[in-house]
Amino acid sequence: MSRPKNDTFLRALLKEPTEYTPLWLMRQAGRYLPEYCETRKRAGNFLNLCKTPSLACEVTLQPLARYDLDAAILFSDILTVPDAMGLGLYFEEGEGPRFERPLREEWEINDLTAPDPYDHLRYVMDGVSETHRALANSVPLIGFAGSPYTLACYMVEGQGSSDFRNIKGMLYNRPDLLHRILSVTADSVTSYLNAQIDSGAQAVMIFDTWGGSLSAAAYPEFSLYYMERIVAGLKKEKDGQRVPSIVFTKNGGLWLERIAAIGCDAVGLDWTIDIGEARRRVGDKVCLQGNLDPNVLFAAPEVISTEAKKVLDAFGHANTGHVFNLGHGISQYTPPESVTALVESVHSHSRSLRA
C-alpha cells in the first residue's frame, strides 16, 4: 500500500510538513447532496445502502467528485457492529436507528460475543476494498467505528436518548454489566478497525459521540479506558506505511489532555473549544482535527470564509498538525455550494499562512 498521490491528510495526522491545511467533513457523503439522495432512493433504504458495497462505494466518492477534499471516509454506520452482535438494527423513517433487542437482561449481556468482521461484517470490508480500488490512491480512505460507550448507549437504550437513563442506571447500579458490554464491544471494534485497515483503510477514526454526556468521574472509566485499549490494539502499519488513528469525543474538551495521552495520532474537537487553546494545552503531542460549527455553513459565502479563517488563525502558523473539519457532522439541510466556499477558503488561506 503506497501513499496516495494527495497524502496531505496523512502527513498532517503524522505531524509532517504540509503545503496547506487538509480538509474533510464528518458525514461528507450525506443527505445535503442531491446525488446521494438519488442513490439512496435506488437502494430502497439506508441499511440497504450501507450493506451494498457498490452503492456504499458510489456515495463515498460523490463528495470527492464535487469538492477538492483531501480524504474520503467510508460510507457506513457506527451501528453495524451491534447489528452484527444480533441486536436487530432497523431504522424508523424520520426517527433514527432502533434495536429490536436492546440489552437489558443479565443473561443477554453475559451471552454477548464479538462478531467476526470477515463473516458478519463482510459487506463493510467489501465496501472498503471496492472504494480503495476506485479511489486509485488519489486521496486516503478513512475507516471508522463508534466508541464502545457510544455503541453501548444505543445497545442498552435501544435507540437515541435525551437522558440516557437506562445506560446510566446500569452504570451506577450494575457497573459490572456495563463493563462486560464495553469490554466485548472494545474487542469487536478493535478487530473491526483492523479488518478495515487490512481491506484498504489508510487511517481510522473512533467516534465517541456520547462520551461527553458522562460525568467527570465516569468518563475515564467507562469511555476513555476502552478507547485507549482499542488504540493499543490497532495495526499501526500496513505495507510499510503508518496508519494513523483519530479519536473524537463530542463535548470532550474538558478531557483534552487525557484523550491526547491515550496513544492516538489525532484528537477531534467539537466547536465548543478554541482550537488555539487546545493546541496550547496539548502542544505537539497530537494532531488536532476540527472544528468549525457546522451551522456556519448556513451563512453567506463570505461569512463562511471569515469563520474558516478564524479557525485557521487560531490554530496558528504551524505548517502541520491540523486537519480542518467541522465540529460535528454536516447538516442534511446544508446548501451544497456552502461546502465549495469552505473548501476554497481553507485551502487558499492556509497556503497564505505558510507563504
UniProtKB/TrEMBL annotation:
Keyword check for Transferase: no
Pfam families: URO-D
CC terms in the record's Gene Ontology section: cytosol
Record field: catalytic activity: uroporphyrinogen III + 4 H(+) = coproporphyrinogen III + 4 CO2
GO MF annotations, alphabetized: uroporphyrinogen decarboxylase activity
The keyword Membrane is assigned to this record: no
Enzyme nomenclature, EC number: 4.1.1.37
Enzyme class: lyase
Subcellular location(s) of the protein: Cytoplasm
Site residues by UniProt (Transition state stabilizer): D77
Any single GO BP term: protoporphyrinogen IX biosynthetic process from glutamate
Pathway, per record: Porphyrin-containing compound metabolism; protoporphyrin-IX biosynthesis; coproporphyrinogen-III from 5-aminolevulinate: step 4/4
Residue ranges of domain Uroporphyrinogen decarboxylase (URO-D) in the record: 22-31, 142-158
Residues engaged in binding substrate: R27, Q28, A29, G30, R31, D77, Y154, T209, H328
Keywords: Cytoplasm, Decarboxylase, Lyase, Porphyrin biosynthesis
Family from the record: Belongs to the uroporphyrinogen decarboxylase family.
Main function: Catalyzes the decarboxylation of four acetate groups of uroporphyrinogen-III to yield coproporphyrinogen-III.
Subunit (UniProt): Homodimer.
Protein's name according to its UniProt entry: Uroporphyrinogen decarboxylase
Native organism: Candidatus Dechloromonas phosphorivorans
Gene name for this UniProt entry: hemE
